[in-house]
Design goal:
mainly alpha, 75% helix, disordered N terminus, 11 helices, Glycerol uptake facilitator protein, 267 residues
Length: 267
């Protein structure tokens, strides 16, 4: 693997070039895979809560909007971007973003066991953080009744009603954009640049109605807690399984593996 910060770029304010981004992503993958279990799980819990915060503000933003379908979805996507901003700048471990560890795995710098260990710990942490946040939001009373409760119910019921293949493909498309956002963050040098790198891809995936497994860990339970009659444990689990598999394909194959072929394979 080549130097993630080639000579001549270290003092530049410009973004890293794509070959340098690839090296930085691979190096980050090695570091993530080597992180001890407790910090990995704990940072996963934080990421689940952070994404839930983004989902909360998304629910608020699309409630009662008179802007029309397209503008409302764009506004909701912009609001949801808060979640990944908190993950990246606040420092947390998000399963969907960690699909990029496949670059280090393809370089044989991370073993299959270490890759699956990281994914398992982070996924479990994300689930705990999301469910805990949904429980606290329900206990706070802000979704006890009214328009926001109706929005939360509608979101949850629409997600569990998706046909499995559609949910799977939406998962692929979603994490392609999420991992591209993380990829761009590795190319950015300052907090402002990282935020800008996050906002456009995340706004796009939310506005287009793609499926993010970790967001669904909050959005479906909070809809159930608000009174979504059609939500059951079985269709919640079914949605998570197919969306998670789609997310893995989108992030690991269409982003991580493709960029590994282009920039790191021959090295």
């Amino acid at each position: 693997m080549f130097d993630p910060e080639p000579a001549g770029q270290a003092d530049s304010t410009d973004a890293y070039a794509p070959p340098a981004i690839a090296a930085r992503v691979a190096a980050a993958g090695v570091a993530k895979a080597a992180l001890p279990a407790l910090p990995t799980f704990t940072l996963g819990v934080l990421a689940g809560a952070f994404i839930a915060f983004g989902a909360m503000i998304f629910t608020l933003a699309v409630t009662g909007s008179g802007l029309g379908f397209g503008p409302t979805r764009l506004l909701g996507g912009l609001a949801f971007s808060l979640g990944l901003v908190l993950v990246v700048l606040g420092g947390a471990e998000l399963f969907t973003g960690n699909n990029l560890i496949v670059m280090a795995w393809a370089q044989k710098e991370v073993s299959t066991r270490a890759l699956l260990r990281n994914w398992s710990l982070v996924y479990a942490g994300n689930l705990v953080g999301s469910l805990a946040t949904a429980t606290m939001v329900h206990a706070s009373g802000i979704l006890a009744s009214g328009d926001m409760a109706a929005t939360a119910i509608a979101i949850a019921e629409a997600k569990v009603a998706l046909p499995p293949f559609e949910a799977f493909v939406r998962g692929i498309l979603c994490n392609t954009l999420v991992c591209l956002a993380v990829w761009l963050c590795h190319g950015a040098r300052g907090a402002g640049a990282k935020i800008a790198a996050i906002v456009f891809p995340i706004t796009a995936f939310v506005a287009l109605g793609f499926e993010h497994s970790i967001a669904n860990m909050y959005l479906i339970p909070i809809g159930w807690l608000a009174g979504a009659a059609s939500v059951t444990l079985a269709n919640f689990a079914s949605n998570l399984i197919v969306v998670t598999l789609g997310n893995i394909v989108g992030g690991s194959v269409l982003v991580a593996f493709v960029y590994w072929i282009v920039y790191l394979r021959t090295r």
